[in-house]
Amino acid sequence: MTTETSLGLWGIPLGILAGTLRGSAPFLFVSLGECLTEKSGKINLGLEGTLLMGAMSAYGVSFLTQNTVGEFWAPWLGVLAAGVSGMLLGVIYGWLAQQHRVNDVATGIAMIILGSGLAFFLGKPFIQPQAPQLFTFRWGSWSDIPAVQAALKVSPLFLLGVAIAPLLQWVFRSTRWGLYIRAVGDSPQSARAMGISVFKVRMFSIVVGSFLAGIGGACLSLYYPGVWTERISSGQGLMAVALVIFARWNPVQCLWASLLFGGTQAIGPAFQSVGIDSYYYLFNAAPYILTLLIMVITCSPKRTLVGAPGALGTDE
Questions:
Q1: What are the DSSP calls for 147-186, one per residue?
Q2: DSSP class of residue 274?
Q3: Distance between CA atoms of 86 and 84, rounded to whole angstroms?
Q4: Which of 29, 57, 247, 269 to pair with 260, CA 20 to 30 A apart?
Q5: Considering the domain 8-298, what is its CATH architecture?
Q6: Quick one: which of 196, 161, 162, 164 has its CA closest to 181?
Q7: Which residues contact 106 (CB under 8 A, 6 or more apart)?
Q8: Entry pTM
Q9: Among residues of the chain, what percentage have pLDDT more than 70?
Q10: 50-62 pLDDT, tens digit each
Q11: Domain chopping of the chain, boundaries
């Protein structure tokens, strides 16, 4: 059987499937991190900068350690570095955002500038070199068709994100820390009356959420597209805010919403792969159009934001 098999129009759904499995991982980690942060009553718009810093840190550490620990372990050290870099930015944001009369949105914008600026400055030496990439599970090895084999390469980080989503939902619903996070997010005054430290709970939520967002950056630089450039995030950190609203602050629904966003991101390349170039740029804009539609629909004064934490967007 020849390996050069023409798929024709079947290449479109196959390309969308491949793009969904590849492109949804960063959305998933950033949205889970933002979901955790917003559950505590804070909006971290700075996760775009965290995503970029995570992508740069992962790529740089993977490149610098490949001769020391080997090409298999170097990317995993990069993933850890990405999470740690996210945590450091989370500590800064968590402290600033909880100061008296400090606005969450303004602080988030400042963190975008800080995170992206640090990533661009420190990442200059890593734009050209090739860093070792994460291994993938080759679920398409049963097929002789290269396109099928490529489509069914799955990152372990994607599977990790899929596992974290229901785990995080269980934490919210069935653990004491989940109760603390929901209490602080819904009514800080009541939480203080119960003896809960609002500052500590929010700091914990923001730092862990930023850790997850940093790993989302590692998905970009060490898996797909697997390079480090200054435009690698394409606004995915900001899209995650709309994604969390769309998912109604539910971690499992964040998983489904991430798959949806990843799929829309893959529409343009899927059509181009079979030679359909008409309206290519319109298809590439699909994730941004979806984000805009979600924001317009959910921000309607006639629509109740079901599941929104009570303190979200307030000065409490």
A1: HHHHHTEE-HHHHHHHHHHHHHHHHHHHSHHHHHHHHHHH
A2: T
A3: 5
A4: 57
A5: Orthogonal Bundle (1.10)
A6: 196
A7: none
A8: 0.91
A9: 91
A10: 999 999 999 999 9
A11: 8-298
